[in-house]
Amino acid sequence: MTTTASLIFNPNAGQNDPVEDLVTIREVFESKINLNIHPSHKGVSTAELTHQAIKQGTDMILIAGGDGTVSSAAEALIGTDIPIGIIPRGTVNAFAKALNISTNIKAACEAILLGRPHRVDAATCNGKPMIVLAGIGLEPETIAHSSRRIKKQFGMLSFVLAGIKELGELKTFEASIETENETMNLQAVAVTIANTAAPTSLLAHGPAHVIPDDGLLDVTIFAPSNRKNAFFGAYHLLRSGFTNDATHRDDIQYFKAKNVKVETKPLQKVSLDGDPIEANSVEINCIPHSLNVLLPALDNFTFN
Ligand SMILES: Nc1ncnc2c1ncn2[C@@H]1O[C@H](COP(=O)(O)OP(=O)(O)OP(=O)(O)O)[C@@H](O)[C@H]1O
Fold it and tell me: Which residues have a Cβ under 8 Å from the Cβ of 17 and sit 6 or more positions away?
């Protein structure tokens, strides 16, 4: 019996030409499996579209988009056994990069055909799906200063430039952080709660490695006391993301927990999987091994 896959395709994600990308995707899949294409459009949420595809019956869900698209589709997929293929055609694609999925469209599609299902963690943030991370302070400020039009035009560079500007402004806030183990009160410039993180997810990289299937969230607190330390700290975080060496600085703390609640004074901007959200506080709960993602087939594979 031939496998049937439902492709959730967001034409508005990323900077690539959607028509060209769709041709590439069809070329790889259509001779091998039955492909039902569900282009996303403004009238219906990606979550709803994914629910509809599952209801119609499918052997796997393919998601072609960026983190926002995967995060929204996850609402329908968390806790199911349906194999999920990620085709990264967003701007940042942090979830795909964290799972070692190629950002080349053709290579990602070919890897799905040969892929092995592997259960990775997801989470909820104030009840909404979270696949990558929630940022408080510096990250959402950076996103707010990088409009969608600029993001579309300059891609990742728009975040780098906005991030450098925000670092220089050094806006400190009070944070009260509660986990299943402890409650702490501290000053910070950024609090980041990560389920997964790409090497470029700078503010999540206090720890050496954010493990996507450990059933835990990684919390990184960045609290530089002046601009010089802010830039040095950012460099150390970036290095940690690329080298797998944890940071060792007094102004960077990190720990793991399954459930994390954060309140801030004054109220801070919050981002969820790369998009701004309205929130007075955040409550994040890890849902271990709740997404069944098709990953590149490698011998003796482990995220550790
Ligand atoms: N249901 C939908 N139909 C069509 N477009 C949508 C829908 N929901 C969101 N969008 C649009 O999709 C775009 C964002 O997609 P996504 O977040 O996947 O990509 P990205 O922002 O380019 O990449 P990344 O999140 O990896 O940085 C936005 O322009 C948003 O308005």
Answer: none
Taking CA atoms, 26 is separated from 18, 220, 276, in Å, by 12, 41, 33
Ligand 1 centroid to residue 12 C-alpha, Å: 6
Tally of CB atoms within 10 A around 280: 10
Where does residue 53 fall: left (phi above 0), alpha (psi -120 to 50 degrees), or beta otherwise?
alpha
Q: What pTM did the predictor assign?
A: 0.92
Sequence-distant (6+) residues with CB within 8 A of 182 are none
The count of residues in the chain is 304
C-beta separation of 2 from 32 below 8 A: no
Quick: pLDDT tens for 101-146.
Answer: 999 999 999 999 999 999 999 999 999 999 999 999 988 877 776 6
Give Cβ neighbours of residue 176 (< 8 Å, ≥ 6 apart).
Answer: 183, 184, 185, 262, 263, 264, 265
What the chain holds in terms of domains, given with CATH numbers, is 4-114 (3.40.50.10330), 129-288 (2.60.200.40)
Task: Name beta bridge partners: 179.
Answer: 260
Q: What's the token pair of residue 42?
A: 């403004």
Query: Measured from the CB, is residue 10 less than 6 Å from ligand 1?
Result: yes
Q: What is the ipTM of this complex?
A: 0.95
47 lines ligand 1 (CB under 6 A): no
Nearest CA to ligand 1 atom 30: 12
178, two tokens: 């509660």
Report the chain's terminal Cα–Cα distance, integer Å. 36
42-52 as b/e: b if 16+ CB within 10 A: eeeebbebbbe
Evaluate: CB of 87 within 6 angstroms of ligand 1. Answer: no
| pLDDT the model gives residue 159 | 66
Give the pLDDT confidence of 9-51 residue by residue, as tens digits. 999 999 999 999 999 999 999 999 999 999 998 889 999 999 9
The stretch 170-186 carries a mean pLDDT of 95
- Residue 298, φ and ψ in degrees, nearest 5: -130, 145
